[in-house]
Amino acid sequence: MQVNSIYTPQRTSEDKIKNPNTLDENDFYQILITQLQNQDPLDPLKPDEYVAQLTQFAQLEAVNDVKHMFENLMLYQTSINNLLALNLLGKEVKAEGDIIHLEKDKDATIHYQLLDDAQKVSIHIYNEDGKLVRTIEVGAQSEGEQSIIWDGRDDKGHHLPSGDYTFSVTAIKDGLSVGVNTYMVGPVTKVEFDNNKLYLTIGESKHLVNLEDIIEIKQ
Where is the FlgD/Vpr Ig-like domain (predicted)? Predict the structure, then answer.
């Protein structure tokens, strides 16, 4: 996989002596680059935050082409994301999603979070064609993160083939639905690009996970 080299804005040979109490374009580049290098990888600087800071810079005398500067900074952000994705290879992550991968004759773990206590929890598992193949009645569970083991069998007790399956969780309390978040958990096994966006593969699943859907990196 080819990763773009890190883009670093360069000073030109036409740099002029400036008033030490003023900021020019190169100063502003360095400020934003420092912010990018020290940002939280799970909560990177948002485009609207770029725009807000670029708008401030637009008021400085040294600005010549804000649009060009914005494009350069986005290239730099892409390079940072590329390196971040590579560093995730082999690490266990938790991502938003409803995919579970099943290996033949093996168990699979289903991860989810209940947003309130529930008196009844049911797990529904579907094959790649969207057909319901298994329902697991869990019973009562407390608010918080939960996981259950699926034995890889359908409702008739037959072992299902290897592949990706989707799941949904139904939780009920006092006759009302309880909110549920579903997750994919496993090691990052591949990093790839599609339409200029970064995606990760978790475990043996063929499902591509958007880098933005990663919510936890386990050490």
Answer: 100-174
